Amino acid sequence: MVKLGLSNTNKLIRTYKGATGLKTGSTSLALYNLSASATRDGLSLIAVIMKAPSTKVRFQEAAKLLDYGFNNYSYKELGKKGDIIKSVIINKGTKNSLDVILENDVGILLKKGEESNITQTLNLSDIFYAPITSGQRLGMMTFELNGNTLASVNLVASSDVRKDTLFNMSKETIYNWLYLLRY
Question: How many Cα atoms are found within 13 Å in the side-chain-facing hemisphere of 57?
Answer without folding.
Answer: 10
